[in-house]
Design goal:
about 180 residues, alpha+beta, 7-stranded antiparallel beta sheet, 4-stranded antiparallel beta sheet, 11 strands, globular, disordered N terminus
Length: about 180
């Protein structure tokens, strides 16, 4: 009698584990359903491309650089350049913390002597506030020629000036790679 009870328990346990395992496998997307992602690093810039499984002929790419709070693994800001579209200005988006003031525009400079370019904040979401820049050809050339440290400036919610370092190391190579995607 004990042998048949043990066999029944083992059979039930095996059936439960099989059902759980097949449920877990069914809950995970099949490899063909997951988006395909590629990344390449050029100096301090990362080029990222993604192809959605449901739209295999549409590839979305950008190049970006992020900063983190020192001593913590928390993102602080992100600068992203979208893949260039023929006949349109290059689009750059700055994502900054939500504790900003809208009274002061965001400024991006390639160095201390560069007057830079400015754009107002366009929107805020829980993950940050965003400023959109249209980079004309002369500004793209300036960014491509820059190799040192630039900065992003804005004012926090208290009206205090904030400057975040922005590296142009690798910008030229990343922009070339992005343009080819």
């Amino acid at each position: 009698m004990m042998g048949s009870v043990t066999n029944a328990v083992v059979f039930v346990a095996f059936a439960v584990l099989s059902a759980v395992a097949s449920g877990v496998a069914a809950a995970q997307p099949a490899p063909s359903e997951a988006p395909q992602r590629t990344t390449a690093t050029y100096g301090d810039w990362v080029v990222q491309c993604e192809i959605a499984a449901d739209q295999p002929h549409q590839k979305t790419c950008d190049m970006s650089q992020g900063t983190q709070i020192q001593g913590r693994n928390l993102p602080f800001s992100r600068i992203a350049v979208a893949r260039p579209v023929a006949g349109r200005p290059v689009r750059l988006v700055a994502q900054l913390p939500v504790s900003i003031t809208f009274a002061v525009a965001v400024r991006i400079q390639t160095g201390d002597t560069d007057p830079g370019i400015t754009a107002p904040f366009a929107r805020c979401r829980p993950d940050g506030c965003f400023a959109d820049f249209d980079l004309k050809d002369d500004m793209v050339k300036k960014f491509r020629a820059a190799s040192g440290a630039g900065k992003i400036s804005f004012a926090d919610a208290g009206g205090h000036d904030v400057a975040i370092p922005l590296s142009f190391n690798g910008f030229n190579q990343a922009f070339d790679a992005l343009s080819k995607e």
